[in-house]
Structures are given as structure tokens and as C-alpha cells.
Design a protein that fits this description.
alpha/beta; four-stranded parallel sheet; elongated
């Protein structure tokens, strides 16, 4: 026999309630449980059929995210009659917001669905940025929202992650003279590519600090000014070949560069016929 059976009832897909339940269960090692979810409950008939299936039991917990008053009242009566522990994950927060703002809730079923969609889209974008970071797999260029290219220490990865949190799927490619740029880079529209550059002086300073933090010799070609100039020239040649805009990140915060990129992308997308 299971230690616990948790039923999740929702007027939408039930992801919000399920996340809360799973986060709570994770606090109990070795718990033997069943998790049963019922989604898109919009009528009393549907609710009654589900409650007949649930029945009664000491080891049951009912977690629900509903906004319709009739459905809420039916669930509360059912739980009271059958002595089932229940948790309403929405109503307390809705009431609190209503009290503070003096604004009436819309009570639209599935009102959190949009929030769920935004959340999962952001998670997907972050996973995408990690998967296609630093040229790990050039095939990501063919399916990304944005490709960022540039030489080492031009903030490609931090920008990719920042933009991922804005729901952009970003792949970034390091440009190194000894390594040919991937062919996929030249197979996508130039409007989906952003080139990053930095001043030789800044790169020299940043790279020296990088070597120091890693405990590597300071005389490495990585921080050599002549080498940096060669890398910049090579990268600019690639960017010109692609036909993409080039952003100088010298003395710019990540947020500032990201704002420039997002403005460019919105403008570029709006001009597509």
C-alpha cells in the first residue's frame, strides 16, 4: 500500500500545483506515493466524476487550483464529508492581492496558463543557450532565434544567458583564426546574427586577469596584444562576410548590450515581409 496518494485538480493544465507538490515531496526521502492529475476541469459534472474516482481514504491529499466558486464549493464539501486533507493553492494569494489592490480578480479558468507558458519558454531558452554555448554544436545555429559571434572575452556567454532569460534561444560561436567558422553560420539570415567586438586594450587587460585567475603564465599568446589584433581582424572579416551588425562591448554592461540587441531584433523582425 502506498504511503500517500496526492490528487491534483486544475481548471488548466495543473503545472503550477504539480510543481508545488513535487517540490514538497522532495523533502521526504523514500516516500512511497502516487500522483494523479486531472486537468481542464470546467464543469460540476466533470468534477463529480473525478471525486467519485477519488472516493475517500486516510492517505489521500487533494491539491487544487481552481477559480470557479461553484467548483470550489463542491470540492470543499467533498473533502469535509470524506475527511480528506486538501490544499487550495490559488485562493489565499488571490484574496491577498485583492485586499491590497482593491481590484477584483477576473476568475478566468486557466488564467495562470500564460504564466506557465512564459516560464517553460524561458527554461527552454536557458537550456538551449547551455546546449549551444561556445560552439559546442554548430547545428544550433539553424534553429536559434539569435547567433552571437565574437572572439574570446567579448561576453558571448553572459549575453546568451541574459537573453535566454528574456526568452531568446541563443547560440554563440567563438571566432578563432585557426578554426574555420562553421558553415551553418553562412546558411542563416544575417538579421539573426550579432557580432561582438572589444577594444584591444580592454581585451589585453581582461585576458591577463583571466590568465592570472587560472594560474597560467602571463606571457601566453592569449593575452599578447599582437595576437589580439590578429583575432579582431579575423573576426571582423567573418562578420563582414556574414553581413551582420557589430557591437563594441567596450565599457558596456551586459544589460546595455542586451538592450541594443533586443531593439535590433525587434526592428529586424518587424521589417520582414
Amino acid at each position: 500500500m502506498k504511503d500517500l496518494t496526492i490528487y491534483i485538480l486544475s481548471d488548466s493544465i495543473g503545472e503550477t500545483a504539480e510543481q508545488i507538490v513535487r517540490a514538497s515531496i522532495a523533502q521526504f526521502d523514500g516516500l512511497d506515493y502516487d500522483l494523479k492529475k486531472f486537468s481542464h476541469i470546467r464543469s460540476v459534472t466533470m468534477l463529480n466524476n473525478i471525486m467519485e474516482e477519488i472516493g475517500s481514504g486516510e492517505n489521500n491529499i487533494l491539491v487544487y487550483s481552481l477559480v470557479d466558486d461553484v467548483l470550489l464549493n463542491n470540492i470543499k464539501k467533498f473533502c469535509d464529508i470524506h475527511n480528506i486533507v486538501s490544499i487550495d493553492v490559488l485562493t489565499p494569494t488571490i484574496i491577498a492581492i485583492e485586499r491590497v489592490t482593491n481590484q477584483m480578480p477576473s476568475t478566468k479558468p486557466g488564467a495562470l496558463r500564460k504564466l506557465d507558458e512564459d516560464y517553460f519558454k524561458r527554461v527552454e531558452a536557458i537550456e538551449f543557450a547551455v546546449r549551444y554555448d561556445d560552439g559546442k554544436d554548430p547545428r544550433g545555429l539553424l534553429i536559434c532565434d539569435l547567433a552571437i559571434i565574437g572572439i574570446s572575452r567579448t561576453s558571448k556567454t553572459p549575453l546568451s544567458m541574459y537573453l535566454a532569460n528574456k526568452n531568446y534561444r541563443v547560440a554563440n560561436i567563438p571566432l578563432v583564426p585557426e578554426t574555420p567558422a562553421p558553415e551553418e553560420l553562412f546558411q542563416i539570415p544575417a538579421r539573426k546574427v550579432i557580432g561582438l567586438t572589444n577594444s584591444p586594450e580592454n581585451l589585453n587587460k581582461i585576458r591577463k586577469e583571466r590568465l592570472k585567475s587560472l594560474g597560467l603564465p602571463m606571457g601566453s599568446s592569449y593575452s599578447d596584444l599582437q595576437r589580439i589584433l590578429e583575432e579582431i581582424e579575423y573576426a571582423h572579416d567573418i562578420m563582414k562576410r556574414v553581413g551582420c551588425p557589430i557591437i563594441d562591448v567596450s565599457n558596456r554592461a551586459i544589460e546595455e548590450t542586451a538592450d541594443i540587441i533586443m531593439s535590433y531584433l525587434k526592428k529586424a523582425n518587424n521589417t520582414i515581409i
